[in-house]
Amino acid sequence: MMKSIVCQQPGELNFLESTKPQPKPGEVLLKIRAIGICGTDIHAYGGNQPFFSYPRVLGHELSGEIEAVGAGVDLPVGKPAYVIPYLECGDCVACRTGKTNCCTDIEVIGVHRDGGMCEYLCLPASHAVVTEGVPFDQLAVVECLAIGAHSVRRGEVTSKDTVMVLGAGPIGLGAAQFAKVAGAKTFIADVNDERLAFAKAELNIDATVDCKNDVKAQLDSLTNGDFPTVIIDCTGNPGAMQSTFGWLAHGGTLVFVSVVKADISFNDPEFHKRETTLKGSRNATKEDFEHVVTCLSNGSVKSTAMVTHKTSFDDFPAIFPEWVKPQTGVVKAVIEIN
Ligand SMILES: [Zn+2]
Ligand SMILES: [Zn+2]
Questions:
Q1: Mind listing the pLDDT tens digit for each residue in 213-260?
Q2: Which ligand is nearest to the CA of 90?
Q3: How far, in Å, are 23, 27, 35, 187 from residue 68 at the CA level?
C-alpha cells in the first residue's frame, strides 16, 4: 500500500491509501523523495487554475529513487532521478522539430494527470533522468529552474547582454541565475521589497530595480541610456508585460515566460523603431534540464536561492494553508519524504 495527498476540491487536501503501482512496459516506478511546490499547485489548491479537474494528486517538481522498472527499461534500481513532467505526443508539428516543450497535445504530470504527492509514482522511463551527486531536495527544483534556464536560452543571452528579469518569484530568481551563468549583466525587478532584498542577498546580481518607482528612469541610469538588451518577464502581470515594450534596448529581445488571461498590446512605432524581437517561453526541454543539473553540480546556480520553506509529507496538508498566505514569505517550498 501507499499514501497519496489528494486535492479533493479547491482548499481541501486529504490523505488516501491505495495499492502501490506496478510499472508497465516502458515505465519506471519512482519512490518519491522530494516534491517542489509551485505556483501551479497553489492555483490548483486555490481553485483558480483554469481547465483543472478534481480530485487530483498535485506535484510535478519531483525527485526520487528508481524502485522498479517495467519490461524493456534499462535504468539502475536504487539510483536517484529527477522527473521531466511534460509528456509530449512525439509526432505533432512541434515535437517533430524537437520542441517537445510546446507539444500541441502536452500532458503534464500533476496537472493533467495525477502527480507526485504520493509515495510511489509510475511514469514513462524516458521522463525519469538518473542523476547522482545532487541531493533530492535540489533535484526536486530542477524543473522550476529549467523554466528559467529555457527563458534565458530563448533570449539567446550572451556576455554582451544586459538582462532585466522582471518578477523575483521562483521562476525569475532562476532566470536571473542563468543569465549570470551566461555572463550577462543582470538586473532583477519587482514591486515587493522583501523579494528584492532576498534576491540581493542570495544572488550575485548586478542591480535591483524597484517597480514601485519609475522603472524607465532607473534603467536609463543603470545602463547609461542603452536599456536592457533582453527583458525576461516572469511577473504574470499583464500591465508589467505591456510596459516592457518601452523599456527595451533598440535591437533587443523580449521573452514572455508569464502567461496571463489577457490580451497584450503594444504601440507599433515603439515596437518597430527598436526592431523588437518578441518570444514566448513555455516549459523547458531535456537540454534545459541537463544545463540546470550541470549548474547545480558545479555550484554556479543555487537551489537555496529560492527554497525558503520545507516540510515532511505527513505535515504538508496541515501546513500548506499557511504557506499560501503571502505574509508567510514563501518563495519556494519543498516536501521531503524519507
Ligand atoms: Zn512548476
Ligand atoms: Zn507533440
A1: 999 999 999 999 999 999 999 999 999 999 999 999 999 999 999 988
A2: 2
A3: 7, 9, 20, 45
The closest alpha carbon to 289, from 183, 172, 106, 148, belongs to: 148
pLDDT in tens, 90-100: 999 999 999 99
C-alpha cell at 91: 509526432
216 CA to middle of ligand 1, Å? 31
| Nearest alpha-carbon partner for 152 in 299, 249, 253 | 253
**Whether the Cβ atoms of residue 122 and residue 68 lie closer than 8 Å to each other:** no
**Ligand 1: centre distance to CA 255 (Å):** 18
| CA of residue 253 to ligand 1 center, whole Å | 24
Where are the domain boundaries for CATH 3.40.50.720 in the chain? 146-280
- Residue 162 alpha carbon to ligand 2 centre in Å: 34
Count helices and strands in the chain by DSSP H and E runs: 11, 17
Establish how many alpha carbons lie within 13 A of residue 136's alpha carbon, considering only the half-sphere containing its beta carbon. 19
Coarse DSSP helix, strand, coil percentages of the chain, rounded to the nearest 5 percent: 30, 30, 40
Task: Select from 3.90.180.10, 3.30.457.10, 3.40.50.800, 3.10.20.520 the CATH code of 2-141+306-336.
Answer: 3.90.180.10
What separation in Å is there between the alpha carbon of 169 and the centre of ligand 1?
A: 12
CA atoms of 18 and 1, how far apart (whole Å): 6
Question: How far is the centre of ligand 1, averaged over its atoms, from the C-alpha of 146 (Å)?
Answer: 10
> For the domain 146-280, what is the CATH code?
3.40.50.720
Give dist(CA 152, CA 186) in Å, integer. 11
- Rounded distance from Cα 171 to ligand 1 centre (Å): 9
Burial environment of residue 160 by CB neighbours within 10 A (0 to 12, 13 to 18, 19 or more): exposed
For 122-178, write each residue's pLDDT tens digit. 999 999 999 999 999 999 999 999 999 999 999 999 999 999 999 999 999 999 999
